[in-house]
Structures are given as C-alpha cells and as structure tokens.
Amino acid sequence: MVPTSIAGEHPLTLYLDKRELVTLMTLGHAPEALAIGFLRNQRIVDSLDDIEAVQVDWETDSAAVTTTRKVDIDKKTGRKTVTTGCGQGTVYGDLMEEIDSVKLSGNVALGDAELFALLEKVRRHETIYKQAGAVHGCALANLQGEILMFVEDVGRHNAVDAIAGFMWLDAIDGSDKVFYTTGRLTSEMVIKCAQMRIPFLVSRSGLTKMGHDIAQRVGLTMIGRASGRHYLAFTGKHRLKRNAPQATMTA
C-alpha cells in the first residue's frame, strides 16, 4: 500500500440572477474565473461590464452571478448542443453563431524557436496531472513562448473557460497570444479560441474534421501533435516562421 494523489472533482452550480443555469464539475481552483469565462464563451453575457458580482459558496457548492442588466436566459439557452468536452460538454445556442464576424489578427507570427520554448515550459510545468493524472491543462502564452497563465481542470472546456474569465478580469488582449491545450482540437476548442480572438491554437493531440473546417473558416493557425521539436501545422501556416535549426514541421 502506498499513498497516492487523487484529483478533486466538485460540483459547482452556477446561478444567474438567482436562476439555476448549469452545474459544472470542476477542480474548483478558480471558480470565479470559471463562472465568468463560462458566461463569456456561451455568449450569455457580452462584456465584463454586464456582470455586477460573483459570489462562490462551497458550503452550498454554488456560484451566484448577478448582472447589471437582465439577461434573457430562455433565449440564450433555448438551444443546446452536447459536445465532445470530456464526454458531456454543453454549448448553448448555435455553434456557428457570430463566427463569421470573428476577425483574427493577420499581423502576428510565431517562430519555431518560440513554439518549442513554450512546449518545453509546458512539459516542465509542475502540474496536478503529473501528481494525479485525470485532468486537462490549458495555457495562455505570448509570442515569445512565455506562459502567462496555466489552468488545469477535470474537463478541458472548464480550463478554457477559466482562462477566458481571467482574460476578461485582467483586460488581456488575445490578438497576440498563443493558446495551448492538452486536449484534442475539436470544433468547441476552435470556436472558444476564436471567441477570445487568439490566432494560435496548439495541442499535443490531434484534431477533428469539424475543428479543422472551422479553423480554416475563421483563419485560425491550428497546430497539433506538438511535442519536442515536431508539430503538424493544420491551418494558418502563413503565421508561422522557421527560425529554429532542425525543426520538423508537417503542413
């Protein structure tokens, strides 16, 4: 018998203006950012100014969000799509709503050397996954390969939403950032990355056909199978520059 670490999993019921909206299963490390990011990526609120307060109470496993103006919850949540988000992710509304209006920056570039630096930093990052497994990790980085924030959760969609929440809270512009995820590159991941206006999406995993199609549609640079000094450039390779010796890129 040996002691071992086990990842936590806690229900967090999200209330919007005293109305129950959804229950998220989460590690619980950043509940306020998770609640804000969920509302942002689900397009239920349009800006941080729409949110008056977020109160988290772990005794009741709840996060109560109050808004500055009444949100038509029925209209916003009338249509629901069960996604690939760790089995039972949920997206409200039309998956493709507003996607055609997304404009990603075309004046930024990511070099091989900076990408490899990011991959190495992610590999060496002290994580819950290394201790206990059973979680996904997401990172927000700059174009120099520096990690600005790293979030882990039992679902990759939760980790993405938490970063989206932090970006709103800290007024971080996504137009010159790189998003890294340990999860696969699905349509949900591409749409959320585009909503945050981030032009680069990187994963150590692969992609889905719909994820690839949407990435092409919005002009996202999508990189998969990224490990060590190797990666696959699936879309948007015009933003990539070769500046590292012995780099391996497959388009």
List keywords for this structure.
4-stranded mixed beta sheet, 251 residues, 7 helices, 7-stranded mixed beta sheet, alpha/beta, 31% strand
Describe the structure.
- This protein is of the alpha/beta class and 251 residues long.
- Helices cover 27% and strands 31% of the residues.
- The protein is built from 7 helices and 15 strands.
- It has a 7-stranded mixed sheet with strand order 9-8-10-11-12-13-15, with helices on both faces.
- β1 (10-16) and β2 (19-26) form a beta hairpin.
- α1 (31-41) crosses α5 (156-169) and α6 packs parallel to α7.
- The chain is globular.
- The model has no long low-confidence stretch (mean pLDDT 88).
Describe the SSE topology.
Layout lengths: L9 E7 L2 E8 L4 H11 L9 E7 L4 E6 L5 H5 L2 E4 L5 E4 L17 E2 H13 L3 H5 L3 E7 L4 E7 L2 H14 L7 E5 L5 H9 L4 E4 L5 H10 L2 E7 L2 E6 L4 E2 L6 E3 L1
Parallel strand pairs: 1-4, 7-14, 10-11, 11-12, 13-15
Antiparallel strand pairs: 1-2, 3-4, 5-6, 8-9, 8-10, 12-13
Helix pairs in contact: 1-5, 6-7
Output the number of helix runs.
Answer: 7
Distance between the termini: 48 Å
Relative strand content: 25-35%
| Helix/strand structural class | alpha/beta
Task: Name the overall outline.
Answer: globular
**Taking all residues together, what is the mean pLDDT?**
88
**Total count of strands:** 15
Order of helices and strands: EEHEEHEEEHHEEHEHEHEEEE
Largest sheet: 7 strands, mixed
Strand order of the largest sheet: 9-8-10-11-12-13-15
Radius of gyration, rounded?
Answer: 18 Å
Low-confidence blocks of residues: none
